[in-house]
Design brief:
By secondary structure, the chain is α/β, with parallel strands linked by helices. The chain has a domain at 361-459: 2-Layer Sandwich (GMP Synthetase, Chain A, domain 3). It has twelve helices and 21 strands. It has helices at 25-38, 43-64, 66-69, 72-80, 96-101, 134-149, 170-174, 199-209, 218-230, 251-261, 373-377, 412-426; strands spanning 2-3, 114-120, 128-132, 160-163, 179-181, 186-189, 213-216, 241-245, 264-270, 277-279, 287-289, 294-299, 312-319, 330-338, 350-355, 361-363, 369-371, 386-393, 398-405, 432-437, 452-454. α12 links the parallel β19 (398-405) and β20 (432-437). It starts with a strand and ends in a 12-residue tail after the last strand.
């Protein structure tokens, strides 16, 4: 297995996911065709396909992936095969701490091609290095093409605007612009410079671009709309669709964003690990989890499955698209509620809400509210070597970052230097940032770790529901 030396370097011509290299078109469109065709299958046929794929994955894992091959329960399951999807509950779960303790044991040892790694920030500030090959990258990207296709959009043909945490080159910022045309059809905008002094120029750029859709973090779309309304300015043109992901979305925010842009808001659930994706189908705001990507379980405290309407539990996922880094019964630490609604898309597991990454804003030295999650989690920071982190704002224009290093990481000075430099770049030097290594970080009452703590009360506006 070879690691690509250019892994994860953002490139202006590929800001859609911040991966430098585009997946091979043949791989991407083959998977997209499969998603379109299988979307017409019955629930029974989808489950039959899942069971066959899961059994093949188990055989692959016990033959080539050390973590699974060393456990008798996986070897037995691979030997006999699961007779139904419900039997997956007999297998043990895994979580981030287990993977970080021995990451190589979760990687396919038989693979000899080039791999890439991607650092997941995680909703609670516990990063994880995920390994992909070109095929897995293409299959993951096809999920995005698919949910865009459901509403008649294509990244290659539709005009779009991206407000998703990309760090713009400094020369563009110095020129007084906060956006650039990445392609003839895609405009990339900074989410760090939205305030009362710039909002009119932001709206003018959006009006001029005449986008078919915007792809944004909920916090960023809300910040732009709320700032414009507070300043008494509005768009002159309508943006038909706003796609948001990676954070919680509150009902009042949905109403405000849809009213401001004049279009439909589509909230998508996905995660860097690539084991699942939940998309809103036309006519529904619920998350429909694509069976072609992976298996989703809603589990309670005893890790038993519960799919009764209205039940809330943790999402446990098993990915079917990445055999280089297979995740079987992976605990996401996100919690979802099973939908009560009846609809024609019942062939897919369906959740009405998901509690995942929170929205948070920090105030920079210029008095601007800056969404924190897009900069920390949109692949701007290399969190490798960091077991857990927490960002704290105690005063305007300052950020204190605490990092817990991996036990295997010995160069704490180099780690602090690297993280500090990347944070300075990501936040555009608009904060005074200090990075401090610590041994532990405390959890919340629910056992979660908050990645961002704001001790400036006025700025706790992320839960504003309109």
């Amino acid at each position: 297995m070879r690691l690509d030396p250019d892994e994860m370097q953002p490139s202006p011509d590929n800001t859609y996911t911040a991966w430098k290299e585009r997946p091979k078109p043949s791989h991407l469109y083959r998977q997209l065709r499969f998603l379109k065709i299988s979307n017409q299958w019955t629930k029974e046929r989808l489950e039959e396909w899942q069971l066959q794929s899961l059994n093949r994955l188990l055989v692959h894992c016990v033959n080539s992936v050390p973590h699974y091959s060393r456990h008798k329960v996986f070897r037995d399951a691979a030997h006999s095969g699961l007779s139904c999807l419900a039997e997956i509950s007999d297998l043990p779960t895994i979580d981030k701490s287990m993977i970080r303790a021995d990451p190589e044991s979760f990687v396919d040892q038989s693979y000899e091609g080039i791999v890439r790694t991607l650092t997941s920030g995680g909703s609670t500030g516990d990063p994880l290095v995920v390994t992909f090959d070109h095929g897995a990258l293409a299959r993951d990207r096809a999920n995005t093409y698919f949910y865009l296709w459901l509403r008649g959009h294509s990244p290659n043909r539709s005009r779009s605007i991206r407000l998703h945490g990309d760090v713009l080159p400094r020369e563009i910022i110095r020129s007084g612009n906060y956006w650039f045309a990445a392609t003839r059809r895609k405009l990339v905008m900074s989410n760090q410079h939205i305030d009362s002094s710039t909002i009119a120029s932001y709206l003018s750029a959006i009006d001029s671009w005449r986008a078919d859709y915007i792809h944004a973090f909920p916090s960023t779309a809300f910040l732009l709309a709320k700032t414009a309304l507070d300043c008494g300015v509005r768009l002159k043109t309508r943006v038909p669709f706003v796609y948001v992901d990676s954070e919680n979305l509150y009902p009042g925010q949905r109403r405000l964003i849809e009213d401001f842009f004049g279009g439909e808001l589509c909230h998508v659930y996905g995660h860097t690990e690539g084991a699942t994706v939940g998309v809103p189908f036309p006519g529904s705001s619920d998350f429909h989890f694509l069976s072609q990507v992976g298996l989703v379980e809603i589990v309670k405290g005893d890790l038993s499955q519960h799919w009764e309407p209205g039940v809330n539990g943790e999402l446990v996922v098993t990915g079917l698209n990445n055999k280089i880094f297979p995740l079987i019964r992976y605990r996401t630490n996100d919690f979802g509620t099973v939908s009560n609604a009846l609809d024609p898309f019942s062939r897919y597991p369906r959740l009405s809400s998901i509690e995942g990454r929170e929205q948070d804003f920090a105030e920079d030295r210029h008095g601007r509210r800056v969404p924190v999650a897009p900069l920390l989690f949109d692949y701007n920071i290399d969190w490798s070597g960091v077991s857990r982190f927490q960002v704290c704002q105690k005063s305007v224009g300052t950020l204190e970052v605490k990092i817990v290093a991996e036990q295997s990481h010995s160069d704490s000075i180099g780690l602090v230097k690297r993280v500090t430099e990347q944070l300075d770049t990501a936040f555009g030097n608009n904060f005074s940032i200090s990075v401090q290594p610590v041994k532990t970080l405390s959890a919340t009452a629910r056992g979660k770790f908050r990645y961002f703590v704001n001790e400036v009360p006025l700025q706790k506006t992320s839960r504003n529901s309109g």
